[in-house]
Amino acid sequence: MEHVTELGEVLGFLRAHPPFSGLAPDALAALGRACRISYYRRGALVIAAGDANRMLSVVRSGAVELRLGGTELNARLGEGECFGYPSLIRAMPAQNEVVALEDTLLYRIEAEAFLKLRAADADFRAFFDTDESARLRRAVARLRSRGALEQDSEETLGAHASIGSLVRRREVVTAAPGTTIAEAARLMAEHDVSTLPIRDGERLVGIITDKDLRRRVLAPGLDTAKPVAQVMTPSPVTIVEDAPVLTALVAMAERHIHHLPVTDASGRLVAVVSSNDILARLGSNSLIIAKEIAAARDDTEVARAAAQLPHAIAGLVGAGVDADHVARYASTIGEGAHRRLLDLGEAALGPPPVDYALVCFGSLARAEQALGSDQDNGFIFGEDYVPERHDGYFEALSRHLCDGLDGAGYRYCPGDIMATNPAYRCTGAQWQARFAHWIASPDPQAVLETTIFFDMRCLAGEARLVEDLRRTVFAQARSNRIFLSFVARAAAATRVPLGFFRNFLLQDDADEGRVFDLKSQAIAPVVDLARVHALANGIEATNTLERLRAAREAGGLDAEAARDLGAAFEFVRDVRFRHQAEQIAQGTAPSNKLDPERLSRFDREHLRDAFKLIRQQLDKLRADFAGGLS
Question: Which of 107, 258, 271, 360 supports an S-S bond with 58, CB 3.0-4.6 Å?
Answer without folding.
Answer: 107
